[in-house]
Amino acid sequence: MVTVENHIGKITVTEKYLTELIRHAVCDCFGVADVCNVNTFRSAVSSITGGRMYKRKGVLVRTDSSGGLVIDLHIKVTYGTNIAAAVNSITHKITFTIEESVGIGVSKVNVYVDDMNY
Fold it and tell me: What CATH number has the domain bearing residue 38?
């Protein structure tokens, strides 16, 4: 569960809903073929970042010290896609989708291009 308190009250969102929301928003972006699977070690990364982590199929969500979300995306792009433009579009779309749907601020979106679809 991701829980954030603000001036209105407490917001609690399940990790599954949040990661599926992000995954669907990313897959709708131009040039994105799919979201890649990534194996990470929860305990090692949690101890380094100092925050809680939630992972589902290429989407890694954690909270930072200010209460915002840090999102890591691992994607596969289609051949011929302008990667810089696609990453910029993904970053804006994810930030807008999370802040409008859930009401939780997004501190940072990291996009990793892991594969290319020919």
Answer: 3.30.70.1350
